[in-house]
Amino acid sequence: MLALALGALAVFVVFAYFQMPLVWWTIAAALLAWYASVIGDFSFILNIFLATALVVVAAVLNLPFIRRKLLTDHILAVYRRILPDMSQTEKEAIDAGTVWWDGDLFSGKPDWDKLLAVPAPRLSAEEQAFLDGPVEELCAMCNDWEITHERQDLPPQVWQFIKDKGFLGMIIPRKFGGLGFSALAHSAVVMKLSTRSSTAAITVMVPNSLGPGELLLHYGTDEQKNHYLPRLAKGLEVPCFALTNPEAGSDAAAIPDRAVVCKGIWQGKEVLGMRVTWDKRYITLGPVATLLGLAFRLYDPEHLIGEKEDLGITCALVPTSTPGVNIGRRHLPLNAAFQNGPNWGKDVFMPLDWIIGGRDYAGKGWMMLMGCLAAGRAISLPTSSVGGAKALTRFTGAYARVRAQFKTPIGRLEGVEEALGRIAAHTYMMDATRVMTAGAVDLGEKPAVLSAIAKYHMTERARACVNDAMDIHGGKGICLGPNNWLGRGYQIAPVAITVEGANILTRTLIIFGQGAIRCHPYVLREMRAAKELEAAEASREFDDAFTSHVGHVISNGVRTLVYGLTRSSFAPVPRNSSAETRHYYRHVSRLSAAFAFLADVSMLAMGGALKRKEKISGRLGDVLSMMYLASATLKRYEDMGRVKADLPLVRWSVRDALYHAQQALDGIFSNFPVKSLATLLRWTIFPLGMSFRPPLDSRNRECAQIALEPGAARDRLTAGMYIPKGETDATGILEAAFAAAIAGEPIDRKLRDARKQGINDPHAVLTAEELVQWQRKEALRKQVIKVDDFPQDFGRAEIEQKLAAEKPVTAKAA
Ligand SMILES: Cc1cc2nc3c(=O)[nH]c(=O)nc-3n(C[C@H](O)[C@H](O)[C@H](O)COP(=O)(O)OP(=O)(O)OC[C@H]3O[C@@H](n4cnc5c(N)ncnc54)[C@H](O)[C@@H]3O)c2cc1C
């Protein structure tokens, strides 16, 4: 009997592990029953009873029409009762976008070979030429202190350059006069600009993200496209997109801005139009926009265009010169100088033709916004965050080498090294995620969940990096002025956290909440069967999805336990994985099975309440996110040709991600509402205890070393950023001081040795050539450690004078 029990257990584990079809389970059960009967010498009655039970259970489970009648139709009825109703806007958000690698991670069985077979995204020669030409030139034109302090705007010639060179139309196809760039190129441009001027980067980023251009491309009428797209591409129009209302920020679908369909006089004729009343705030480029993308709720009380009274959210394009449009004042978002401000209007009449897509798209605004959100969100903020992190790596590494305390470059002090190593490793992972996510967009994906992961984690990591960089710079980072390359980046970090889905909401509501429905192999099918299908069709679809779902849960549970007991040894890896990274693939595969199992158990245990349990769903989202970031990092290592010098960055960042995923899991177990299930989950997922450890200090040192040493690894890590030529500004001087500090180290040693012998005069120790080199190094060092000071008015009077002299030009450009 013991052998029988062990045999049954073995069969269960093997069959569940490989997710065998039901018919195999049935055959195995029959064989085991027969064997039990033989060795147990069962009575005739018992044998008959056993056989009958077996036949009944086998029939119920294997024959769909019986299974539906006796089992799954009843479950469907209960499911229909408990499944909360979804609002139209929730439905449209769920339906938007596509599922890509997130689907694999949710399945519990990521197909690594499929991921690694995706070609590494590459820029075209033309895109590269744009980066090396106009983008480089634009960066050189931007002086961040002048922009953020003196003008609080881009200089007129920079505005003009941006418009003339097509920066505002990167996503607009060539046939409309745009640059027609790939998502990767778009991302590379924004990244490079972000390493020089966040104002320039945001100014370029916004028209290429969710807004008039993107909406027109997907939904515009031919007439709208032919009129506006060439004008947007050439910078003849400056667009903005206004959704946020003082009463509706995160809950944007609740905007109270409204329009009523009515007749009115337009250009001397009576036309069908709408009277729109709105009050918007925080609108980027709003104060200088000529074309206002406007979202409002449209009502048709007199049924002039159809049966429905409340048509829903609608998007229109409104020239800001329209009488009644109030625009032009500015907010001051944490001293950032990009244009941002409120706008409003009361009962402004506009023709229905101004609705993007025309009358047919009245009320479809939310669907349009959700449909377009993923591409922009996958690029804008993740990319600008990576740009920031690259600049932090390069400049903080250089500063840590130039600045010395206790007779040692501060980068060699372990505490500083720890922070610097973190910055470098985060940068590698962030760049990997940027490239993979933009690459997905270029493959035609609209990665709704992955773009939310990229947005949340890249902006949070940028904030962590800038905090570390500020600590490393000490007072030098705090006192603002032209010599401070860091302070403005520190100030602006929360802007990226707040926009395009504020981060707390993105983490706790979107990543897992949307992922659980969109990326799960069966949940959406079950929901659709319950809510959208009827009668036999619903019954068939639900039965199929539900039975597959049960097999999926059992299989993931068993595989999780097996992977846990064997420390991930049997978890899938790609066919050609290398010895250095194979175990990481295994661990992510194990996490994927654990996550899939846990996600299902959580949904089962908490049902609809899970949506409100944001502390749990936030942590579930963290596990999914860590797997995505680790996958992107591993793919990047492969795509770059397995460069050994980059391995410390890969090792630190993947290990850190695994450790964080484990912490998130621990947090879920500790706070799971059903304690017995929590214990079961803990034993299943970590049967031998929590085995992932934080990255090693030695690895952190290797990462810091990459930021501290000139060379190919540092250049690779910061590739694509703007590096000033010459010593014309603070970062140019820093680059030169860094090179001089390293070249001058033998001379420093010589001087130190001489001092030990009581010789303090460098002239007495150094050759003439060495003396010149040492003096230049010292001069550069002194410039680097210098901070700015100002007259009492911070130089305002002088600045006003300078700007007054050129006011006519500024006014023209504006
Ligand atoms: C500089 C800047 C530029 C902007 N540009 C534009 C623009 O061009 N166009 C435009 O339309 N809008 C723009 N916005 C608006 C931006 O999208 C909103 O600020 C954002 O949606 C958050 O809204 P809120 O600031 O009102 O915060 P609130 O909605 O009040 O949120 C406050 C906090 O509550 C959290 N929260 C809210 N709901 C939940 C929930 N269900 N679960 C968990 N946490 C939740 C949020 O994450 C946030 O942390 C911009 C904002 C800024 C600051």
The fraction of residues assigned to DSSP E strands is 5-15%
- Helix count, per DSSP? 34
Mean pLDDT comes to: 95
Overall geometric form: flat
Q: Summarize the main sheet.
A: 6 strands, mixed
Find the count of extended strands (DSSP E, 2+ residues). 8
Distance between the termini: 87 Å
Oligomer: single chain
| CA-based gyration radius | 31 Å
Structural class by sheet pairing and helices? alpha/beta
Low-confidence stretches: 810-814
Distinct small molecules bound, one entry per kind: flavin-adenine dinucleotide
User: Helix fraction?
Assistant: 55-70%
Description:
With 814 residues, the protein is of the alpha/beta class. 62% of the residues lie in helices and 8% in strands. Strands 1, 2, 3, 4, 5 and 6 form a six-stranded mixed beta sheet that branches. α15 (365-402) crosses α27 (697-708) and α17 runs antiparallel to α19 (487-498). The longest helix has 38 residues, at 365-402. Mean pLDDT is 95; it is low at 810-814. It binds flavin-adenine dinucleotide.
Give me a quick take on this structure.
The chain has 814 residues and is of the alpha/beta class. The protein has 34 helices and eight strands. Flavin-adenine dinucleotide is lined by residues 240-244, 249-250, 282-284, 333, 340, 495, 498-499, 502, 504-505, 508-509, 614.
Task: Name its key features.
single chain, 814 residues, alpha/beta, six-stranded mixed β-sheet, two-stranded antiparallel ribbon, 34 helices, 8 strands, 62% helix, 8% strand, flat, disordered C terminus, binds flavin-adenine dinucleotide
